[in-house]
Model the fold of this input.
Amino acid sequence: MNLDLRGKRALVCGASQGLGAACARQLASQGASVVVLARTADKLKDVCGNLSTDQGQRHGFLAVDANDAVALVEAVTTEKEQGGAFQVWVNNTGGPAPGPAHLAEPAAYAKAFSQHLISAQSLLQVLLPGMREAGYGRILNVLSTSVKQPIANLGVSNTMRAAVANWAKTLAGELAADGITVNNVLPGMTRTARLDSLIQQIAQSSGRSVEQVTKGMLGNIPAGRFAEPEEFANTVGFLASPAAAFINGTSIAVDGGSTGCM
Ligand SMILES: NC(=O)c1ccc[n+]([C@@H]2O[C@H](COP(=O)([O-])OP(=O)(O)OC[C@H]3O[C@@H](n4cnc5c(N)ncnc54)[C@H](OP(=O)(O)O)[C@@H]3O)[C@@H](O)[C@H]2O)c1
Done:
């Protein structure tokens, strides 16, 4: 099975911690040169400094806010001009704040639309020409199992994930002939800062202890545990590789069997 990404460049967004950072480590371990992107320069520098270089990879980082589409396009365009085109793109950013759909302010939906979809479309237009020229593109959207089954108390997130998933599915059909695949990878509950803060917020709003909330969540996962970020990143690494060339337009859950639909 060919998992070799030597000679390829990967842009990994939302990569200063959590799932994005794990994806960056995985892609680098497969030989890719990786540029990690998020807002916090110090953390990005740390992530970048710990990526594998044993196959001659050259890594870098971009500190930019995905909510600022103009700055995002400028930063990635400059990086592309100076360092070369990207063939792999992990489209990832922070999740919207939790809460019921009907209570969310319209502005919360607008912000999430900007951060999740406008930023993605803006980056797509920067990255696409290079992928087409290479005849190789792998676009991996980090979404959520809510693409398949809405999650209670994540109203804005559920809405946005469905929008991005449909954007991705449409693109998959449009771009396949150019050797570009577009897939969604859906994390179940995975041990990252995002999960810790969700548990804290649920505990606070429900008056239960962190231990009780954690136990309740684990009870919904047939595997009986949270995922490790590396388990998610393994799936991204495979889908980014030449071996996954015929997998396109899918949404793959990495959730220990917790999603209640097929
Ligand atoms: N972990 C889970 O159990 C789980 C389950 C389902 C879905 N998800 C979703 O999967 C995605 C990644 O999850 P995670 O657990 O790795 O989250 P995380 O630990 O909160 O990490 C989010 C990453 O996105 C970056 N980011 C946030 N806002 C940004 C912005 N405006 N512009 C640029 N970068 C931004 C953060 O870095 P900076 O703060 O430095 O910008 C960080 O690197 C999220 O959308 C999350 O909702 C996670």
About this structure: The helical segments are 18-29, 41-49, 69-83, 106-134, 155-175, 193-206, 210-218, 229-240.
